[in-house]
């Protein structure tokens, strides 16, 4: 059986993040990728100059078309900029009894541009997070979801991850890429376990789409029937290698993309 994963996210016209990064990641990891586009962005490595939200009725139509036909093994959810879009996606997931949901609560692009309207945060907490198998916030996103200060230490990270778990997700991967130090440390927190996942911090400006790439890599692992912890570890290893190889690419004049196909070219 062919492993299939679906990305529900926004489009990045420069190709480094969003739907484009997700589909590249699925392909690189041997998974067939399908998509539900929630927004179009006019975007490059230097920033986001425009967002065009897809009407919720058409988001619903895409969900129904894909899930009524394809045997989907996992779903990655990214940019949902409006409350109505969040509700439409949550309803679609419930209607099709979707399993293995990886939610990346995208709020701000690498360039600093906001991708989620402030009033949507509460809807995300209430409607979508309880449906997630795993949520993958970075430090600023975790702080926004908890209405708290950004974690600065590893004990604070673990504490915030455990607080996020109480919002209803089955597991939380709190990413430490925004922190400082020689290591980039993430914490995978499940109801009965806490795992510290560390990788050498890579000095580069090529961070465009790293969160999208990690969450879609984890979804690819789940689509291939990996256990959650194994999918997370393999996903982190993949994105770390993609960041390390990003210098082979020369894309744009700002925050460049990772090298999704580093193993091939």
Arithmetic mean of pLDDT: 93
Strand content: 15-25%
Indicate the radius of gyration in whole angstroms: 17 Å
- The CATH class, by name, is Alpha Beta
Total discrete domains: 1
Low-confidence stretches: none
CATH architecture: 3-Layer(aba) Sandwich
- According to CATH, the fold-level topology is UDP-N-acetylmuramoyl-L-alanine:D-glutamate ligase
Instruction: Assign a percent range to the helix content.
Output: 25-40%
Q: What shape does the CA trace take?
A: globular
What is the CA–CA distance across the termini?
A: 28 Å
The helix count comes to 8
The strand line-up of the biggest sheet is: 3-2-1-4-5-6
Report the count of strand segments: 9
Characterization of the model:
There is one protein chain. The protein has one domain: UDP-N-acetylmuramoyl-L-alanine:D-glutamate ligase. The strands form two sheets. The protein has a six-stranded mixed β-sheet. It is an alpha/beta fold and 265 residues long. It has eight helices and nine strands. 36% of the residues lie in helices and 22% in strands. The chain starts with a strand and ends in a 21-residue tail after the last helix. 50% of the residues are buried. Helix 1 packs across helix 7, helix 2 runs parallel beside helix 3 and helix 3 runs parallel beside helix 4. The mean pLDDT is 93.
């Amino acid at each position: 059986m062919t492993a299939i994963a679906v990305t529900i996210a926004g489009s990045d016209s420069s190709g480094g993040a969003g739907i484009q990064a997700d589909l590249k990641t699925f392909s690189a990891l041997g998974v067939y990728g399908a998509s539900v586009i929630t927004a179009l962005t006019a975007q490059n490595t230097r920033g986001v100059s425009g967002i065009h939200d897809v009407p919720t009725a058409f988001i619903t139509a895409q969900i129904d078309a894909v899930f009524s036909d394809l045997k989907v093994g996992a779903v990655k959810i990214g940019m949902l900029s409006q409350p109505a879009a969040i509700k439409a996606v949550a309803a679609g997931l419930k209607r099709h009894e979707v399993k293995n949901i990886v939610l990346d609560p995208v709020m701000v692009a690498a360039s600093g541009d906001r991708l989620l309207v402030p009033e949507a945060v509460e809807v995300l907490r209430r409607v979508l997070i309880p449906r997630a198998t795993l949520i993958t916030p970075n430090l600023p996103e975790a702080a926004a979801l908890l209405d708290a200060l950004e974690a600065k230490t590893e004990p604070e990270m673990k504490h915030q991850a455990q607080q996020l778990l109480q919002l209803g997700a089955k597991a939380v991967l709190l990413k430490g890429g925004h922190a400082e130090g020689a290591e980039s440390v993430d914490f995978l927190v499940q109801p009965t376990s806490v795992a510290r996942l560390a990788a050498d911090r890579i000095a580069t400006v090529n961070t465009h789409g790293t969160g999208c790439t990690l969450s879609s890599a984890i979804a690819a692992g789940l689509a291939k029937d990996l256990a959650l912890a194994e999918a997370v570890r393999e996903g982190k290893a993949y994105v770390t290698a993609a960041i390390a190889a990003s210098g082979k690419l020369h894309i744009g004049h700002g925050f460049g993309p990772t090298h999704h196909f580093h193993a091939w070219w």
